[in-house]
Request: fold
Amino acid sequence: MKKLKTKIFFTIFTILTISMISILVIYNSTNYIREKNSIKDNLSKMITEKRDGEHEPPEKKDDRESPPDMPEGENPRFMDVFMYTVILEDEKIDKIISHTKDETTPNEIQTLANTILKKKNKNSLVIGNLYLEKYSYHYQNNQIIIIDNSEVNEKLRIDLLVSIIVFFLFEGISFVVCNEISKWIIQPVEASFNKQKQFIADASHELKTPLSVIMASADAMESDHDQKWLHNIQSESNRMSDLIKELLDLAKLENEESSLSMEENNLSKLVEMSILPLESLIYEKNLTFHYDIEDHIKFTCNSSEMKQLITILMDNAIKHCKSKGKIYFSCKVDGSNILIEVRNEGDAIPKGEEEKIFERFYRVDQARNRNENRYGLGLAIAKRIVVNHHGKIKAHSRDGVTTFSVTFKK
Reply:
């Protein structure tokens, strides 16, 4: 079970991690491509305008005079980014024009221009790594357009740093959430697994006792041919047969919900046919029995399972009714529901165990039920029949009377 929980945890955690990485990679890649295209557009636009002789901006940006080193009648175009044009003459720097409102040109621009010239790689557009490279440039004909990437560098680095922080925060939160989710998912599986283990243990225990008696009786018969040993073998064999039959019935019911053969039946007749054979047993035990069955109740159900349900509830009431006690049975339509009730005077259900009595092998009085060849499977079978018919069953004891209620939707 621990391995299953770990597997579920890592599966969910891995899916969330991969999803988050994908989102952050897409986010940062989109930002990077957008900034790269923006730089590329600015460089290409400036080269085109220079080639066409368009030095003037579309509209005047300010009233500042041209820099002192600018020839008369030539004004630079001002840009929103730090951008420079290096004019060449015979592959040497003639002058450097700044396209920003900052009139100063960094010395490193001239150094960069000389480095570009040494490469002798004309008609080249170099963007570089926008996380690391401070400058990008476009070298074409007799000019080099250089753009400062500093602001872009800082923006992309901040985005990357924020993404890393978000990722680790997300991983921490995901770890806690996935751990809780895996616990929540495993709970019903673990409960079912524990029930199966308990079921196997209980079934083994129940089968072990009669089997031991049979083996001991068989050994005794070798030296003593007394008929009591044969009687023990027959009695315990019947007991094992009953137990196995109930186990098979329960297993069948738990796997047939989707394949039940349902048809509309006269539930009133079904119920009456189920309780009438038990009247002799009730009389034999000196009990008082009253029943109230409404006529012509129509219900779509599996008739054999419905008879089995009524028999189990009545048998349970008879076995737990006190001496000379009363049993009451009713089957009525209550609004849009069909309500079946079985009440008996006698043994009360312990407080807080109203749900447990429907579990397999549960018995309030272990010794008494074993002596009566009762294995704690009857009510588990009854509940499964009710569930398979989309109904509800509950039980409670009050003032010496135990009531079992079954509700079906019409």
Remarks:
- The first helix runs from residue 2 to 51.
- The chain has nine helices and twelve strands.
- Residues 134 and 150 are 6 Å apart (CA to CA).
